[in-house]
């Protein structure tokens, strides 16, 4: 079955069409600047050239209409008709406490997602608009909601409660929710596969280090703690978010960008500066790595041990340099990196030595494939 995976942001929409049997990406793309002047669609069919179409997209319906037209286009399309798209999987940022797993979208589900709007005021409304627009254009196609928060719903109370008056939780649902759940779930399962061990008997720490960054502790197949909180601001130092401290006011100036005195929020630039001995770059990267190492230590303690530490997302997958700096903190866990393996890129790998007591894995995350799998599993029931 072909699954259309949709990820709606506040002015953009990313999409992939994935065949759920072969797990192949048949086409992918992005609509940018929706409802803003200068909107455009980038579309790449499998094996074909990237195409850029500049055209007005006054709303999400117009954007999705363009995506569907591209997918079914006589020349550059990948399916003959919309009927060949069996289901749509929507990435939804916040499912609150209501959603502990993906779910087929009904009117009642839409209402429940809307009730979570206060928890993710920038993301959930955009996600809902995306669903409505798809429903309008693909009336008979089943739709599934896949939540960023769902995987973390297994956290115990002691991990998700803040040290606040308990009524804040009862009355306003103020608690840790966690995000990047689709990625943490995908990567931890893949780690068990790579290790050839039973998912339900492993203690894993997953470091999703991208522009947004979070760590999670996954014990016996269940998330037991994660670093992001009520919002994605908490926890690690990120590209532009401060991490622990939560001064939302500094959102655009903090993180490694602020620490490097506005040098860059991109690790490629900071790594270059680090090697050239630039004090600001060393400061930013060292603070970032220290914070990751601190969380890994905390989660190893929370699980009373750890079998494997998994690195994923833009920095986690691509920067052997950053991984190596972080792993220097893990001597007490018996971590020994295989420096040669650690320099490789683009595939799931064990990058620690054979003798390393705790294993270190690099696993390219794939949130779109994970969303397509969840969607296929629900609509094929
Ligand atoms: P993501 O949010 O997962 O897409 O990650 C994006 C971030 O990954 C970028 O902002 C870069 O900081 C980082 N990144 C991507 N490629 C590399 C690379 N080759 N080396 C170091 N960092 C990278």
Report mean pLDDT, rounded to a whole number.
93
| N-to-C SSE string, H for helix and E for strand | EEEEEHEEHHEHHHEEEHHHEHHHEEH
- Total number of helices: 13
Q: Helix- and strand-based class?
A: alpha/beta
The unique ligands bound to this protein are: adenosine monophosphate
What is the general shape?
Answer: globular
Oligomer: single chain
The rounded Rg comes to 21 Å
Walk me through the topology.
Elements (H helix, E strand, L loop, with lengths): L1 E7 L4 E7 L5 E8 L7 E6 L5 E4 L5 H13 L12 E8 L10 E2 L2 H9 L8 H14 L5 E5 L9 H4 L5 H7 L8 H15 L7 E7 L3 E7 L2 E5 L28 H5 L7 H9 L3 H24 L5 E5 H6 L1 H8 L11 H4 L6 E2 L8 E4 L4 H13 L2
Parallel strand pairs: 1-6, 6-8, 9-12, 12-14
Antiparallel strand pairs: 1-2, 2-3, 3-4, 4-5, 7-8, 9-10, 10-11, 13-14
The structure holds adenosine monophosphate.
Structure description:
The chain has an 8-stranded mixed sheet with strand order 5-4-3-2-1-6-8-7, with helices on both faces. Strands 11-10-9-12-14-13 form a 6-stranded mixed sheet, with helices on both faces. Helix content is 34%, strand content 20%. By secondary structure, the chain is α/β, with parallel strands linked by helices. A hairpin with an 8-residue loop joins strand 13 and strand 14. The model has no long low-confidence stretch (mean pLDDT 93). The chain contains 13 helices and 14 strands. The longest helix is centred in the C-terminal third of the chain and has 24 residues, at 279-302. The site of adenosine monophosphate (AMP) has 13 residues, from helix 8 and helix 10.
